[in-house]
TrEMBL record:
Protein name in the entry: Tumor susceptibility gene 101 protein-like
Gene3D superfamilies hit by this protein: Ubiquitin Conjugating Enzyme (3.10.110.10)
GO process annotations (BP): endosome to lysosome transport; protein transport
Domain UEV: 1-105
Length: 133
């Protein structure tokens, strides 16, 4: 069930998966989600990039910072000639030119803090304290 910005609630079919996107000689599996409206095929689905925890969205003219996908294929959806397979093919072609996600930089393990100056020596002898009971 999806609540839209105008407050309308609709039950949608969601299709989650990955699409193979070739980029610079390597094929990446880009996670996407398609929301199929109850008016499908007369209305275009809503399409989103769904990055994994180790990915970030690369906003562009085709994908906003929330992952919503904007393509002419969706805007010009025609139930007589448009279908989900065609949409996926257009996403693959578009994303192979401009990938919608990138890998988050891996955090290096923290390095132990090194004191900036050596610890000063105590001007008097120290002895471990002993606890007596």
């Amino acid at each position: 069930i999806q609540v839209f910005n105008d407050g309308i609630t609709k039950q949608l079919l969601t299709l989650d998966g990955t699409i193979p996107v070739p980029f610079k000689g390597i094929t990446y599996n880009i996670p996407i989600c398609l929301w199929i409206l109850d008016t499908h095929p007369y209305s275009a689905p809503m399409a989103f990039v769904k990055p994994t925890a180790d990915m970030s969205i690369k906003a562009s003219r085709h994908v906003d910072q929330n992952g919503k996908i904007y393509l002419p294929y969706l805007q010009e959806w025609n139930p007589d000639v448009s279908d989900l397979i065609g949409l996926v093919q257009v996403m693959i072609m578009t994303f192979s030119e401009m990938p919608p996600v990138y890998a988050k930089p891996k955090r290096a393990p923290p390095t132990p803090a090194q004191p900036a100056m050596p610890n000063p020596t105590t001007p008097y002898p120290t002895q471990p304290s002993e606890c007596t009971s």
